[in-house]
Write the structure tokens for this entry.
Amino acid sequence: LLHFAFFGLKIIKILKKFENMKHLHLLKNNRLNVMGLFYNILNVLIHDDKFTSNLLSPAIKYLENNYCHNITNAELANECKISEEYFRKLFKKTYGISPKQYIISMRINKAKQLLTEGRLKINAVSEQSGFSDQHHFCRFFKQ
């Protein structure tokens, strides 16, 4: 309930800034003030954890379905409809690791699952986990 109240206050502040921005827009020679308010609103939203996780959620869903393939940051940024550079910075800030490290972590977790089932050989596990070859898989698994 406390978090909801805090989030509600944040929304109210953003709406007040937006109303002020609309008012300034109607007056002449206020372009810089309007842009300043606009960037202030973006800054508030970007520093909200729920906003950033929602912004990155299309990339996470894409990774969950495609982690076995070669995936570029450009593809992931495109899923989120943001620039590649901004995507990399936001991803690192939100998850504490790079997108590449995140993909490797997903692949290792899949490999662990397959290995504990005990039905597949190492080369099949590495292939189904998305690693290019068995040696590549073994190197990352040891790390």
About this structure: Helices lie at 2-26, 31-46, 49-66, 73-80, 84-95, 99-117, 122-128, 134-142. Residues 118 and 125 are 10 Å apart (CA to CA).
